Amino acid sequence: TQLLEQSPQFLSIQEGENLTVYCNSSSVFSSLQWYRQEPGEGPVLLVTVVTGGEVKKLKRLTFQFGDARKDSSLHITAAQPGDTGLYLCAGATGNQFYFGTGTSLTVIP
Amino acid sequence: KAGVTQTPRYLIKTRGQQVTLSCSPISGHRSVSWYQQTPGQGLQFLFEYFSETQRNKGNFPGRFSGRQFSNSRSEMNVSTLELGDSALYLCASSLWGPPNYGYTFGSGTRLTVV
Questions:
Q1: Does residue A1 carry a pLDDT above 60?
Q2: pLDDT computed for residue A13 by the predictor
């Protein structure tokens, strides 16, 4: 049973397009993180959000934590081939992180 | 600073054998967590060690075990390997661990059981 569901599971877009990835749960999290993983490597932490309604921007990436701290979204503006990878959300509850099911993004030049 | 080092990177074992994987966390980090990643199940939490004590454990059988040494280096062991144990095993280092501190992951050990 996955605590965090991500959608879409797969996404293939042209360079320059915008996209949004969603991370949803029925559980409340004390913090939520987003990671990007490239083939053959471990995930790399992109951002941590801790306050309901919080919005963080990292260049072309915008992360939002839901008001109720149960969901999050990642929006990428003007996607580039370098954005290609597996995007994972991870929610913290208790003393453990639970990872989402992942969204595999391919940006075509 | 040096990142998280996992050894070996690749491993091929036969069913029934046992295997030990190693992880050296970032210097000063006291929390080490282990995850199993497969295409079908995603990242599944195995266990977390903090200052040589197992602090959290996931829902894996007793064949999966781990330990942490006084220098924070950690090992995980899988005994009586099964085909379904084939996966990427990831070690994650953190200063104090969840929920307030994120992970720095190693590149993983790719285990193939034949």
A1: no
A2: 97
